Amino acid sequence: MLPSAARGGRLKIRGVAVKALIRRVAVSAALVATAASLSACSSDTEPVASVQPAASAPVAQPTEEASPSASPGPVIAVGESGKVDVVDTDEYGENPTVVTQLDVTVKSVEYVTPADIDTTNEPEHGQFARLTLTVKNVGRSPGDFSAYGMMKWESDDVAAQDASTLEELDGPDLNTTYKPGQAVTGSLVLDVGAKGGTVSYWGRITDSAPSLTIALPTS
User: Fold this and answer.
1) What is the pLDDT of residues 112-124, one digit of tens each?
2) Quick check: 64 and 94 in contact, CB under 8 A?
């Protein structure tokens, strides 16, 4: 049997060991509890959805509608006829719409002198031409035919130039408002650069192409 002093020392050693073991168990338990708490917090947290910027919708580009006068009208010669669209717009000069049609027939083309048409004026461009037409409204609405300032002459060698004149001839006036079915035969005096070439009629000054083109004879 050990002496009492030895037994007391062993008890003290055992007490220290037990206390150390208890501390380790307590620390381990605390770590486990902390880990469990963190795990629970992590599992309870809802995932954050990533927000992607919305794709911008393509901007619709305005479509440009073709004007009724965007394409050139027919090309005719003496004895032939061609249709002319009469175009009207709204109060702002926009939204052109065909309201009726005029049928234009070239009856004759004569190259004349100032004496032939009883005038003392000389042609500015080189040659007077008397153009006789029959204009008839073949649509259902009234329509205007106005040649002054709207007739241009050109050739292969000369750019387009105004062919209108203020010379007046006897007979009906072609420049008028035609009622449906109405027809007028009359003549215009044009100032052209030379015999031949073409004379074009422009329904409106804003048109991008002529409404009608007439091929002139060379003699």
Assistant:
1) 999 999 999 999 9
2) no
HEC letters along the chain: CCCHHHHHHHHHHHHHHHHHHHHHHHHHHHHHHHHHHHHHHHHHCCCCCCCCCCCCCCCCCCCCCCCCCCCCCCEECCCCEEEEEEEECCCCCCCCEEEEEEEEEEEEEEEECCHHHCCCCCCCCCEEEEEEEEEEECCCCCEEECCCCCEEEECCCCCCEECCCCCCCCCCCCCEEECCCCEEEEEEEEEECCCCCEEEECCCCCCCCCCEEEECCCC
pTM tops 0.70, yes or no = no
pLDDT tens track for 152-182: 999 999 999 999 999 989 999 999 999 999 9
* Amino acid (1-letter code) at residue 200: S
* Euclidean distance between CA atoms 71 and 213, whole angstroms: 12
Residue 88 shares a structural domain with residue 18: no
Does residue 82 sit in the same domain as residue 131?
A: yes
- CA atoms of 173 and 148, how far apart (whole Å): 12
Query: In this model, does residue 10 exceed pLDDT 60?
Result: no
Asked whether residue 60 is domain-assigned, the answer is: no
Q: What is the pLDDT of residue 207?
A: 86
pLDDT tens column, 79-102: 999 999 999 988 888 888 999 999
Residue 146: domain span: 75-215
Same domain assignment for residues 79 and 9? no
